[in-house]
Automatic annotation (TrEMBL):
Name of the protein in its database record: MMPL family transporter
Highest rank taxon of the organism: Bacteria
Pfam families linked to this entry: MMPL
InterPro entries in UniProt: Acrflvin-R (IPR001036), MMPL_dom (IPR004869), Mycobact_MmpL (IPR050545), SSD (IPR000731)
Annotated signal sequence range: none
Length: 769
């Protein structure tokens, strides 16, 4: 405490230091901040699943692609449309260095046979006569490797697939392509889809959203603070505290070279909403000291305010930081870094609150508040609340049990979803295009099944190929699966054309020798790069591409269950089943998200219980102090389950945040109640005084936090709006549970266990400093 007072006595030096640090952080943010939307960068590089996926992606050239949709309601098989498809294909290859390969109807290979020989030629020969186009249409409809996959079954739309290089800047590329395709519009309609488009759009929308949210939350908080505190001086102090906390969090992030993830756009709103709590409690204490000692001097006021609040503010900031730091147990990088830098911001706000308020007293003198403490406290309301607690404790307990029962039931309905498309409104053009592609073609998302063996040429074995084909048939029976592609698909198409489309010829031949001949003929006639996407050169590792009509991790579980059911069949051939690609990474991402949520909750509750027990020298108080946040957590998950709100990378943060903030109310209440009881006051007197003093600050605190998070309701991202609404609910739940259930429980302990008479000596001996 002496160190804080010593710094506070030098307000000009403190302000200069604050200004220098703010400029340093602001410059770092403006020069190096970048929004990361690449899903592969969300994952820990050392995770076995991602290492295996990356190896498979390297082997088979698996990567995300931008899908350009060309639609002609009159049908694509006319000279103008086909020539435009060909022109776009060539222009993409020439105009964009980031695009490694372009696949379209005009350059895709068609497997055919002539006089018993296998031939692989493009569907488009360059001839746009009516006869040639009708022939091309017949070839497309006879080839299931492209029909329904790259060309819609109604013949009105086709895909031009632009495969990207590893270092492609999706944000810049999707923006450029959106403008570039405009020159090709009319009469055909063009649009783009695919994960890179989604990632690029998120990277573009994230900063725009933050640019709207940040000033809006500042304005809202200024209005709220002035309305609650009726003090320009304390409102300004609070805003300096929260703005510095935000600069500290983002500045630390950029100085350490950590990218800003989409979820981090909530940090400013969060820190501004949280940080005002420390200022509100400092204001509340200073106000009460002035009311109690009207002639108090500035030196004594500064010392007494810090002496009174250093312990509860330090402990509340520490528990809030613990709620955030617990998120670092997650293996999902955005969640981990969010927790770390939000905790840094919170601790910075705590230090600044303890410094700036006494420094302002030394600089500006004792504050003069417009309203007296009696009017601000609204004792009649608090008296009625105390009467309810004293007279109807059983009612409050029964009501709490009913709420908990409903909450637990709702919690059982919580589901996980890490869909990137969920970040957009349903009527957003990106979502509508994605739905169009999923309806017309195989799908915009992919899952890659990697089959690995130590035996060369194993995937020429008819039984192995037939097992693969059987699994693909089962997968395609799932409505979420659009198409599948593997070496088995190639062999079936080769067999069909070599047998001149005879009945049942689209199948795997029983002879390994015949299969080897087909592959040899294909290698002589076709593009080896095409076959390399499904099999390695030793024929010991195969890739099955599964096209999905949704990027939701929730629907992928059924698909993986089907694949896993073939594990035993493949193991008989010595084949191991693995996964790769963005679809699989999304699923693992969701599993890690759930795992991290469970671990962070356990850590948060465990550490906070330990701190409360240590702080108040009593295990039972530690247990009772966690009850309000336990109720808050159950209500939060219950509402999510009942309203069908998924657990996502954004909503996964809520409970740890709510625990960290919500326990502050319990600490402030228990601290003041304990001190009042130790002064010799009765249980009823201590309760009333605590409700009048700390209860008022808790209500103000909750209103300020809820007001700050309410700004998220105006975010362009639906998950952020869900977070805002849920945290408003959580803050209200925590405050109400603290001022009702916690009071009932502490009364029970106090009355039946002579709580404070037993440990009054221990607490009175501790140094408040």
């Amino acid at each position: 405490m002496k160190f804080i007072i010593a710094l506070a006595k030098r307000p000009y030096a403190l302000l200069l230091l604050l200004l220098v640090l703010s400029i340093l952080f602001a410059v770092s943010i403006s020069q190096t901040a970048s929004l990361e939307t690449d899903l592969s960068e969300y994952m820990p590089k050392t995770h076995p699943a991602f290492i295996a996926s990356d190896d498979a992606e390297q082997l088979f050239g698996i990567g995300d692609a931008i899908l350009i949709v060309l639609e002609d309601p009159q049908g694509i098989y006319n000279s103008e449309t086909i020539e435009k498809i060909d022109a776009i294909t060539k222009a993409l290859e020439e105009d964009f260095e980031a695009i490694e390969r372009v696949i379209s109807l005009t350059n895709a290979d068609n497997i055919q046979s002539t006089d018993g020989f296998l031939e692989v030629e493009p569907f488009f020969s360059g001839n746009t006569s009516e006869k040639a186009l009708l022939s091309m249409k017949a070839d497309v409809e006879a080839n299931p490797m492209i029909y329904g996959r790259n060309v819609s079954r109604d013949g009105t739309a086709t895909l031009i697939i632009a495969e990207l290089g590893e270092d492609a800047d999706t944000k810049a590329l999707q923006k450029t392509l959106q403008q570039w395709i405009g020159q090709w519009e009319g009469p055909q309609k063009l649009r783009i889809a695919g994960r890179p488009v989604i990632e690029g759009s998120l990277a573009e929308l994230g900063p725009k959203d933050m640019a709207i949210m940040f000033p809006l939350v500042i304005l809202t908080m200024i209005i709220l603070l002035y309305f609650l505190l009726r003090s320009v001086r304390d409102t300004v102090l609070n805003m300096v505290i929260v703005l510095f906390g935000t600069l500290l969090a983002f500045g630390s992030m950029t100085l350490l070279g950590i990218p800003i993830y989409a979820v981090d756009t909530m940090i400013p709103v969060m820190l501004i909403a949280i940080g005002v709590a420390y200022g509100i409690h400092m204001h509340n204490t200073i106000h009460h000291l002035i009311a109690e000692f009207p002639t108090i001097g500035k030196d004594e006021l500064a010392r007494k305010s810090v002496q009174t609040m250093i312990r509860p503010i330090f402990m509340t900031a520490l528990t809030t930081a613990i709620g955030f730091v617990a998120l670092m147990s997650s293996k999902v990088l955005p969640v981990r870094y969010f927790g770390l830098f939000a905790a840094i911001g919170v601790l910075g706000e705590m230090v600044l609150a303890l410094l700036l308020f006494p420094a302002s007293i030394y600089l500006l003198g004792v504050p003069k508040y417009k309203q007296n403490i009696q009017n601000l406290s609204k004792p009649s309301a608090m008296t009625r609340l105390n009467a309810l607690i004293m007279n109807r404790p059983k009612f409050l307990v029964i009501l709490s049990m009913i709420i908990l029962a409903v909450g637990i039931w709702g919690t059982s309905k919580v589901w996980i979803d890490t869909s990137f498309l969920a970040n957009f409104e349903k009527n957003n053009s990106i979502v509508e295009t994605d739905q169009y592609v999923n309806a017309k073609f195989g799908g915009t998302s992919t899952l890659n099944v990697i089959l690995t063996s130590e035996n060369e040429d194993l995937f020429k074995d008819p039984q192995v190929l037939q097992t693969m084909d059987s699994m693909q048939t089962d997968l395609e029976s799932n409505a979420i699966v659009g198409n599948t592609l593997s070496l088995a698909t190639f062999i079936k198409q080769m067999n069909q054309v070599m047998e001149e489309h005879a009945d049942a010829s689209f199948s795997i031949p029983d002879s390994q020798e015949l299969i080897s001949q087909y592959l040899l003929l294909y290698e002589f006639s076709g593009d080896p790069q095409t076959l390399e996407q499904v099999i390695d050169y030793t024929y010991s590792t195969a890739n099955i591409t599964v096209q999905l009509k949704s990027d939701s991790s929730a629907v992928l579980k059924d698909v993986l269950t089907t694949i896993d059911s073939y594990q035993e069949a493949f193991s008989k051939f010595g084949i191991e089943v693995g996964y790769a690609g963005s679809g699989y990474k999304t699923f693992v991402f969701s599993e890690l998200l759930l795992e991290g949520q469970i671990i962070s909750l356990i850590i948060s509750f465990g550490i906070i219980f330990g701190l409360l027990a240590l702080l108040f020298h009593n295990v039972r108080i530690g247990i009772v102090g966690t009850v309000p946040i336990a109720i808050t957590a159950i209500v939060n998950f219950g509402v999510m389950g009942l309203l069908n709100i998924p657990l996502s990378s954004a909503t996964a943060l809520i409970t740890s945040i709510a625990i960290g903030i919500g326990v502050d109310y319990a600490i402030h209440f228990l601290e003041h109640y304990t001190n009042t009881r130790l002064e010799g006051k009765t249980l009823e007197e201590a309760t009333v005084e605590t409700l009048l003093h700390t209860g008022r600050a808790i209500v103000f605190n909750a209103i300020a936090v809820m007001g700050g998070f309410a700004i998220l309701l105006f975010s362009v991202f639906p998950p952020n709006r869900q977070v805002g609404a849920l945290i408003i609910l959580n803050m209200a739940t925590s405050a109400i549970a603290t001022l009702t259930v916690l009071v009932v429980l502490i009364h029970h302990l106090d009355r039946n266990n002579h709580l404070f008479s037993k440990h009054i000596t221990t607490i009175s001996q501790r140094s408040i400093t």
